Every structure is written in C-alpha cells, then in structure tokens.
Amino acid sequence: VVEVPGSESARLGYAISALALWCLLFVALMAMLVMPALVQKKEGVFPTLKLAALLVMDNPIFCLGLAVQFVVIAGLSMIVPILVFLSCSIAVVLSSSAYEMLARKYAKRARAEATPIQGMTRATAALIEDEDAKDDYLNRGFRDFLFPWKE
Hints:
α1 (7-41) packs across α4 and α3 (60-79) packs antiparallel against α4. By secondary structure, the protein is mostly helical. The longest helix has 35 residues, at 7-41. It has helices at residues 7-41, 45-58, 60-79, 83-114, 122-134, 142-146.
C-alpha cells in the first residue's frame, strides 16, 4: 500500500467537513421551529434554542418532512412568479402549524402521564381524546378563514 503524503490531514479534513455538514443540517432543521417556539413559549433565546434542538432530536422524521415541504414551497415560488409574494406567509403558517402539532403531542403525553393509565377510567380516556374535537384552533371552517375576528 502506497501512502500518499498528507492523506492523514485529508481524512481529518473530510471528517471535519462531514461534521460541519451535519451540524448545518441540524441547525437548518432547528431554524424551522425556533420562531414559533419563541412566540408561543415567550421565553428567552437560549431556552427556545434548547427547545427547538430537543424537538428536532425527538422528531427527526417529522422535521425532515417539514423541510421537504419548505423546499417544495421555495421551488414553487420560483416557478410561479405570483407565489413569491405568498411564500413567506405560507412558510410562517406551515412552521406555526408544525409547532402546534408538536406542542399538542407533548401536551397529550403529559396529560396521559399525569393520569395513571392502570387506574384510568373510560370516561377519563374519552375526555383526553375528545379534547381535540372541542378545540377551536383545530375546528375552524371557511367562515373562520374569511372572518377570523368573529366567534
């Protein structure tokens, strides 16, 4: 085996560049959830960054799917010129909805852990599942789209 001079430094460079690429991907996935978390949680920057990092680590497939949707929106906004003006609002709605879905997932998990599963009655289990059916945020129609200020 012929040893090429400098191959050890090349391997180190490849390893560092691969690490930097994975860190860049992780930060890009975090960036999708940082702004909604900052608005909803009303905490400082560092707790919000920690929350976004934990959400990405706990839900990697969800975040990758969200990133694919952002890429599709960006691609469509370049193809159809009128979507350039709408793409920012679509991205904000998408990231806010994604954060809301994750927040509901963890809220439901916290409620289920607070209530003992063994001793849970059917009424309690139905109450936990039925909360989504009564939620105003989830059950909006076209009238709410046209007149969001009316109840």
